[in-house]
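step 4 of 6: structure.
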Amino acid sequence: MIMPLLQGLKITFLHMFKKPVTLQYPDERPNVVPNFRGLHGLKVSHERAKCVACYLCPTVCPAKCITVEAGEDANHDKFAARYEIDMLRCIFCGYCVEACPVDALKMTQEFELASYKREDFVFVKERLLEKK
Amino acid sequence: MVNLTIDDKQVTVPKDATIFDAAKAAGIRIPILCHDKKLHPFGGCRMCLVEVEQMKGRQIPACTTPVTEGMIVRTTTDEIIKARKMVLELLLLKHPIDCPVCDAAGDCDLQNLTYEYKVNANRFQDEKFQHKIDYENPLIERDMNRCIHCGKCARICDEIVSFGAYTFMNRGIEAKIGTEFDGPLNCEFCGSCVSVCPVGALVSRPFKFKARWWSLNKVKSVCSYCGTGCQLTLGVKDNKVLTTIYDENQGFHNGQLCTRGRFGYQFVNSDKRLSTPLIRKNGTLQPASWDEALTLVSAKLVEAKNAGGKSVAGLVTPRLTNEELFLIKKLFKDGLGSDSIDHSAGYAHAALTAGAAESFGSAASPSVISDIQNADLLLVVKTDAYETHPVVGFEINLGVKRKEIDLRIISDKRGKLSKLPKAVTYVHKPGQEVALVNALAQVLLADNLQDSTATGVEGFEGLKQQLEAFAPEKIAAACGLDADTIKTLARDYAKAAKALIILPLGLGYPGHGKALAQALANLALLSGKVGKEGCGVLFLGEKNNSQGAADLGIYPTAGGADADAILAGCQSGSIKTLIVAGENPVVSYPDRKRVEAALDKVEFLVVQDLFLTETAAKAHVVLPACSFAEKSGTFTSVGRAVQQVNQAIKPVGEARSDFAILNGLLAGLTGNAPYADAAAVFAEIAATVPAYAGLTIAGLGDTGAILPVTVKPRFVAAETAAVTAESGKFALVTGSALYHCGTMSRFGEGPMHVCPEGYVELGRDDAQALNVKDGDTVAVKSASGELRLKAKVGTRMPQGVVFAPYHFDEASVNSIAVGAPVTWVSISK
């Protein structure tokens, strides 16, 4: 009768001398693993987004949260005139990154995506471009 | 028939079939890149290699090898798969593999086969092509780096379109598809090459980067430009028609389209579309609600009805569906008690509704489009048949080139059809068509070449008498052709076992009316060439539903006013309310000044249209209507082919279909319950219009139905109108430009890229005499007005004759032409 209680207390006491498993967030920051699937980032190369607006990410997206509109630039090349991800719908599956044929998309370690307004959850191209 | 075995399956096919055809018949797919069912076999890509047991394991192309009795064919042995893989590897060696940015991805034969044969590595290495990409024309982008040398573009342009814009140039690894002197593409932009290109070497610029192929919703419909009735597939995304998609199994034309059908769809989603009703308040048109607009229109109609219906009239476009035409006829007949309703200026349908109706007993062609390819001789009236109905023109091209049909053209100018092999163009003086055709008939009688059935036909004696005045010798000088030439043509026509006459109609051709139709009908009846395969007269109605408008009686049938009388009535004040549904009389009817004066004068003008046209701008109430892509219904095209139009997108803005507008007005006026939908109206059409008896919407399916026409022949003397030449002046003939149809194509970007403005076309000699160069602006002056038009100098026009298309608002030809077949004009710089 008393033994299980003592067993429990023993575990409790032992933990008092171990490193805590919780974080004092936000004072303490977590160490996010490299393959964590957080906020998307559009890779930049030669001063412009690598994305060629091939529409494979909106095609593969199971949550239908990506909107792409292609445009034609001065050199007659294709680029994403509009690239938006609705983070409220995104399920962070990473299929978009996998589908990208030109390695233009990545998922960052950024996980703090809370916001006050619905509109703010729609990440337009400028917000997604990777920061240098 | 030949029996053979393909992959252990027994197949029986006609002896002219190839192995590829036989496999297709057996349901076995052989991969192809360079083959198209419309084109001659080419055997260039080597993807269709198969093994034939009798040929000891040699690999032979299925698309070029005819079948033989007892052949044993294997299509998928390991050796063949290896060979096909290597073909793909070699193609991919030079191909840029830029699928992510290539519009063909998803609908690319090379991509699909690469995936199917799992070609994910390449044993070979080489540099890619560095050809310059042709961005210079607004409709077709040519990236020869992606080209796989299947030659389909060059072949379709030569075999079917008969333009010949492309050819292979250079040799070996340098070989590529080139244009004239390797310059930018400058053709008639029908886009046939784009449609058959198996990769993305040729892409449509208006659709470039707009959407991926797999995200498009594909909706089958019927083109809403000319009367040919080409079926097309619309590519739709986000309530927008983005492109037309090629489907080689659609329609008599196997998916082949002209520049308007392929590149003229943008009017559907044009920014210029009307989105709300407009009501004239204090002199300007202001947006209003549907309730307000319809209440106003209903009140005026009730007023007109109570006044006896004589003061209300309608001008209706034959672009509406059969169901809408039926409703508007019913609205006038039952709702308002008026018979004053007409279309196409009252004359562009006369060949059918008066000419064919009297001579053949029904307002329809006694022939169908498939007769073209079955004829031995084609007698085409005016080379313009190609410009007005380009896909019918393709059929003529095919017939002449593949079946060696004898093509004879009587025309006031030369044209593209004149360039076909062995085509003979009889260039006569403008306005002499009826006299010339009468002379042909006279030769038949004089030479005793008439058919035995002809003498028994009503009116034979009368015709005989009337034709005496038209002996070739008598009219030769006036026609500008010598008597012997006329006689040869008549004899050749009579002696051909099967001969078909083709007559294009349209607002630009005031001379193609009742008299010409009857003259041609007489000729066909005299020679006994009616009611048989490959024979008869094919009237090409101008608009998509011209035949439907004739069938459903959109013209005065009980003594009402025709278009001409309606406009006169508007001017005199006897017509107080005018409903214009889709027509644009200001630009397309003859005598612009008179039309404008009439429309300014009419007390209450209601216009239903997609755009704020020149006519709508004069209206008191403008109701925004829907294009063909926003509604379901049926169109009846050339040869009485009834086909279904399917709704592809939701109405743009607040627009409502003419069906909805008319249905509401009709119900309000008659007090009857409105029709449930277009199908209910179609059922009533089938029940009340004899020609449509027994038809059901479901029965039409995707292919549609061709309604038979029973001919009750009668000879009616065709009256000639006197053409008095004015010395020192040019004969101006009007007509259609290849890129346009009516005034609607002006709202499509494609046609406007290629042909943005009106012009006057002159022969070289005349241009030299006037010291006018191509592109100069010249003043064209007639008795009724003066215009400044851009000159186009070519070899087409005979001396003393000039041509101008009628579609354009700025410098519209109807301000100098008042509806006569020939207008005499003076031209100066």
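step 5 of 6: annotate
 - Chain B touches chain A at residues 99-101, 105, 133, 135, 141, 208-212, 214-215 (CB under 8 Å).
 - Residues 284 and 620 of chain B are 9 Å apart (CA to CA).
step 6 of 6: archive
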